[in-house]
Amino acid sequence: MKPENIFRKIWNFYAEGFREMGSWGRQVWIIILVKLFIMFVILRLFFFPNFLKSNFETDQDRSNHVLEVLTKSK
Amino acid sequence: MIEIADASLVDWSRAQFALTAMYHWIFVPLTLGITLIIAFMETLYVKTGNEEWKKITKFWMTLFGINFAIGVATGIILEFEFGTNWSNYSWFVGDIFGAPLAIEGILAFFMESTFIAIMFFGWNKVGKKTHLLATWLTAIGANLSALWILVANGWMQHPVGMKFNPETARNEMENFWEVLFSQTAVDKWLHATSSGFVLASVFVIGVSAWYLLKKRELLLAKKSILIASVFGLLSSLYLVMTGDNSTRTIANDQTMKFAALEGLYNGSEGAGLVAVGLFSSSETDPSNENLKDFNLKIEIPNILSYMAFLDWDAFVPGVNDLINGNEKYGILSYYERIKRGKVAIEKLTRFKEAQKNKETQLANSLKAELTSKDFQENYFRYFGYGYFEDPHDLIPNIPLTFYSFHTMVGLGFFFILLFIFSLVFILKDTFDQKRWFMRLAIISIPLAYIASQAGWIVAEVGRQPWVVQDLMPTLSAVTRISAGSVQTTFWLFAVLFTVLLIAELKIMFRQIKIGPKH
C-alpha cells in the first residue's frame, strides 16, 4: 500500500482534532474567530491606520516629519 | 501640521495603551506558569503510567486552552497602537524594537501552531513521549516568547547598544547582544516569568481548594495542590531573588523611579525601607502635588541602602537630590539635564535646517558633532529632558508607584506563606479539613492577578514621563491626532475587552464546574 502523503497526514491531524473537539473548544474557536475579525477587519482598517505609512510616501518624508516633531515638541 | 501635544491627547493615549496592556497581561502570566505545571504533571504520567495523572493533565490543559484562546492575539492591538498613536516613538526606536518583536511573532506562531496543536489534538495520535515533548516545548516556547517582548521593554527602560542617526531620526542597533543581555532586560524577563509561575500556582491551588470545599474530585485536587505548592514555593523564592536584582538595577539606572517607589524625598546614607506607609492629602512641597507627607510610616533602618547598593550605609538619592543635584555624590541636577537636553535639541534643529537649506558642509559638521562620543555622553543622553521647563514635571505619580510596589511585594510574601501552609496541610492530609484555608486559597486567585498588574504599574508609571528613558518623553512620542479619536477607541476597547473577559470567565467557570471527564 502506498504510504500516506505527509501533507495529507498533517491535514488529517488538524481536521480530526477540530472534529473531535469538546463543546468548550468549539465555543473558544467562535470567540477567536469573532475576535480576529473585529481586530483585523474593523479595528485595523477603520481605527488603526499606520500614521506614518498612510500620511507620508517615502522613508525620507517620514524621517523629516519625525525630526520636525522632535525639534518642535518643546 | 506640527502642534504641541496637549495633555489630554497624551493622557488618553497613555490610558488606551495601559488598558490594552493590562488586559493582555491578564492572560499571559497564567499561560507562562500553567504550561510548566501541566508539563510536570504529564511527566509524572509518562514516568508512572498512572492514568490519574493523565486525567489531571488533561483537566488543567482544558483551562489553559480557554485562557490561551481568549488571550491570543490581544497583544497585537498594542502593535496597532504603536503605528497609530505612538508613531513618533515607533520611528525613533527603529529596528531595536522591531527586531525583538519580529522574533517573538515568528517564534510564537510556529511554537503555538505546532506544539499546542499536538498538545490538544495529539492524545492517542502520537506516542506518549512525543506528546510530552510537545507539552514541554509549548511551556518553554511561551516563556521564550516573553523574553523578546521584555527585551524590547527593557531597552525602553534602559536604552543601550544603539546610536541615534540624526539623518533618519532613528536609533540604530550597534550591538544586538548588549540589547539582549542588558541587565534590565534579563531582570525583567526573569521577574515577569517567575511572577507568572507564582500566579499559575495560586490559580491551581485555588481551583483545587474549591473542589475540596465541594467535596469533589478529591484525588485530582490533592495531587494538583501538591505539585502547585512545591512549584509555587520554589518560584516564589526565585521571584524574591529576581525582584531583589531588579531593585538594584533600578536603583542604578532609574533613580527617580527608585525614589518614587519608596516615597523617598530626601536622600540619606543608611536609608530606611518604608515597610508600611500611608500618604496624607497635604504636600511636603507646594510646587509638586505628588510629594505628599506620610501620615503613617513604619520604617526599617538601613535596609533600603542595602537593597540598592549591598551596603548598609550607602547613600540613596531622594527626589529632591535628583531635582537639585548633589555634588557630594556626583548627582547631576535635573535643572542641568534640562539645559543639556535643550542644547541637544537645538543642535538637532540646526542640523535639520542646514539639511533643508542644502548647506551640506554645515550639515555634515553638525552631524559629526551630534554623533561624537563626547556629545552623546554629555548632551544627547539627556535629549528628552530638553522638552521640559520645570524639573517637577519629571517626577512620576509617587503615591500610585509607592502603593503598587508595596501591594506587589506584600502579596508576594503572602503567597510564600500560602504555599508553605498548602504544602504542610497537603502532606499532613488535613487540607480538606481546614475550610478557612480553602476559602483563603480561592480568594488568593484574584489577589495574584492584582499583584501581577501592580508590578507592571510600578514598572510603567514609575518611569514616567519617559517612553524611552531620558531620551523620549510621552509628549514627543505621541502622534498628533485628535484626542477625541483616541477616546473613541479607548471606549471601544473597554467594551470589547469586558465582553471577552466575561466570555472567558463564563467558559472557565463552567468548565471548572463540569470538572475532569470521567
What does this structure look like?
Chain B: It comes from Maribellus luteus. Chain B: GO terms for molecular function: electron transfer activity; heme binding; metal ion binding; oxidoreductase activity, acting on diphenols and related substances as donors, oxygen as acceptor. The complex is a heterodimer of chains A (74) and B (518). With 74 residues, chain A is mainly α. Chain A has one domain. Chain A contains four helices and no strands. The radius of gyration of chain A is 23 Å and the shape is elongated. Helix content of chain B is 70%, strand content 7%. Chain B is built from 18 helices and eight strands. Chain B has helices at 7-48, 51-71, 76-84, 87-121, 128-157, 176-180, 183-213, 218-253, 255-261, 303-309, 319-324, 334-356, 360-371, 373-378, 398-427, 435-461, 474-477, 483-514; strands spanning 162-165, 170-173, 268-269, 273-283, 292-300, 315-316, 466-468, 472-473. In chain B, the strands form four sheets. A two-stranded antiparallel sheet of chain B has the order 1-2. Chain B has a two-stranded antiparallel sheet with strand order 3-6. In chain B, helix 8 (218-253) crosses helix 9. Chain B is globular and about 75 Å long. Chains A and B meet through helix 1, helix 2, helix 3 and helix 4 of A and helix 2, helix 3, helix 4, helix 12 and helix 18 of B.
